[in-house]
Specification:
Helix content: 25-40%
CATH topology of the largest domain: TIM Barrel
Bound molecules: 3-methyl-2-oxobutanoic acid, zinc ion
Number of domains: 3
Structural class: alpha/beta
Oligomer: single chain
CATH architecture of the largest domain: Alpha-Beta Barrel
CATH superfamily of the largest domain: Aldolase class I
Number of strands: 18
């Protein structure tokens, strides 16, 4: 029997550090439930000291997740560790992940500490974390650019202090596979008590090598990989969970460990859930979860696959959950079927009123679109479509006129703080005209950074899913909207983003918070 590879998902923590990807507590809980269903081993739910919102989210995830370990991040500081310890308290199995930088540049320029001080603080932090849980992980931040002898000293000392997992981050994505694998091997060989801890890796994708570096580390003895759904994360992102898992599963012949405990059929729906919530669309040619990942265009390939799937496919689409996107409901489906299917998808309604509201939107959609797929249902219940009661701006009506040779025009009616306003505007196209009309009422002064449209399912009656990214006073937010009419979907997405821009409740980005 080969070892089991521990899958540590950090979508809710490092993934959330992507500008604009911040998630509400409810969204984090939904993603955590999907990860638990996939049987991910560890879920890093957030950075509790970063903000009260982040603390609440980690606490909420720790309260509902039963089968996965729930982890909270902390710097190697008493106040961080106390907060993380408090946040994971309700967990069946809770972990504190504490870190301090060990590279010369980080120690000198960022921490302004000498190596002995860093070593002392690392040991102190691990001992402090052990007062809250037996399950403590330590990371020497920027390990990929740290001196190996110093890393060995720190890691030996933190194992003695009680760290059970040593996570080696390539924080800036600087490493390359052979060298990074060699580093892991070297550390395991040189550190006298290395057999007392699990070696983990955490790779960033600045050179597009996060997955390759992680897998090279696995070949050299790492038995935990930190990764995110869709590779979401700081800058170019983190190693993608779906690519790591499917590489190890598909190439059982070469990897010295397995991921047999995971339910890989949950991958596609979880990927959809994360992209829907964060507004970070998945590129069509993305491995495993991209819309084209299992599509064959060329005649030769199609012919080969029809004769024998293995000619051009190394994995089965259904093993990662592609075929589970069944047509589940239609126009005649009842409220109970709707509620039951959403429960199976991990979505529960906070109140009857919320359920009735969503069911009303489902009926409207079913009038326009005969076949309702799981992805349509997921889109119906994204926060963007849930019209939370505390939203200040709501779309009442939109009429656009787009005609060859004429300047497009939009008439919009919106509620702002319970008062109805209407406005008209011209624009370069119907979407541009609608946004201008809305902004002329709201006067948000925000800058549009991104506008993207994806179809949720195939067919011309598919819902369009629109993401709008806005920036105001250095804060970046994403808004989403979906509808069978993409101009309406765009207006919904824009209003969703504006509500976030105007909302005080939205959590501060961990990177810009007061930590
Ligand atoms: O990239 C990094 O170094 C991190 C640490 C906190 C593990 O995210
Ligand atoms: Zn990271």
């Amino acid at each position: 029997m080969s070892d089991q590879l521990i899958i540590f998902d950090t979508t809710l923590r490092d993934g959330e550090q992507s500008p604009g990807a911040s998630m509400t507590k409810e969204e984090k809980v939904r993603i955590a439930k999907a990860l638990e269903k996939m049987r991910v081993d560890v879920i890093e739910a957030g950075f509790p000291i970063a903000s009260p919102g982040d603390f609440d989210a980690v606490h909420a995830v720790a309260s509902v997740i039963k089968d996965s370990t729930v982890c909270g991040l902390s710097r190697a500081l008493d106040k961080d560790i106390e907060r993380a310890g408090e946040a994971i308290k309700p967990a069946n199995s809770g972990r504190i992940h504490t870190f301090i930088a060990t590279s010369p540049i980080h120690m000198k320029m960022k921490l302004r500490m000498d190596p002995d001080q860093v070593l002392e603080q690392a040991v102190k932090a691990v001992k402090k974390a052990r007062q809250y849980t037996d399950n403590v992980e330590f990371s020497p931040e920027d390990a990929g650019r740290s001196e190996v002898d110093f890393l060995c000293r720190v890691l030996e000392a933190v194992i003695d202090a009680g760290a059970g997992t040593l996570n080696i981050p390539d924080t800036v994505g600087y490493n390359v596979p052979e060298q990074f694998g060699g580093l892991i091997r070297n550390l395991r060989e040189k550190i006298p008590n290395s057999d007392k801890a699990v070696f983990s890796v955490h790779c960033h994708n600045d050179l597009g090598l996060a997955v390759a570096n992680s897998l090279s580390a696995v070949m050299n003895g790492a038995r935990q990989v930190e990764c995110t759904i869709n590779g979401l994360g700081e800058r170019a992102g983190n190693a993608s969970l779906e690519e790591i898992v499917m590489a190890v599963k598909t190439r059982k012949d070469i990897f010295p460990c397995n991921v047999d405990h995971l339910d890989t059929t949950q991958i596609v729906s979880t990927s959809r859930l994360v992209s829907g919530i964060t507004g970070f669309a998945v590129q069509p040619n993305k491995a495993i979860v991209g819309a084209n990942a299992f599509a064959h265009e060329s005649g030769i390939h199609q012919d080969g696959v029809l004769k024998s799937r293995e000619t051009y496919e190394i994995m089965r689409a259904q093993d990662v959950g592609w075929s589970t996107n069944r047509m589940v409901l239609g126009k005649h489906s009842g409220r109970n079927a709707f509620k039951t299917r959403l429960k199976e998808l991990g979505v529960e309604f906070a109140s009857e009123a919320e359920l009735n509201d969503a069911f009303g939107r489902f009926k409207d959609l079913a009038d326009k679109k005969h076949e309702i797929y799981d992805d349509d249902l997921q889109a119906l219940v994204t926060d963007a479509n849930m019209e939370a009661e505390n939203e200040r701006i709501k779309l009442v009506a939109l009429k656009v006129c787009s005609e060859t040779g004429e300047t497009p025009n939009a008439d919009v009616a919106i509620m702002v703080d319970d008062q109805e306003h209407s406005a008209s505007s011209e624009g370069g196209g119907p979407v541009d005209a609608s946004f201008k009309a809305i902004e002329s009422v709201v006067n948000s002064g925000s800058e549009l950074l991104l506008y993207s449209v994806n179809n949720i399912t195939s067919g011309t009656d598919s819902q369009g899913e629109v993401t709008v990214r806005l920036k105001k006073n250095g804060r970046i937010v994403n808004g989403q909207g979906s509808d069978t009419d993409i101009v309406i979907a765009s207006a919904k997405a824009y209003i969703n983003a504006l509500n976030k821009v105007l909302s005080d409740a939205e959590r501060a980005h961990p990177q810009t918070g007061d930590v």
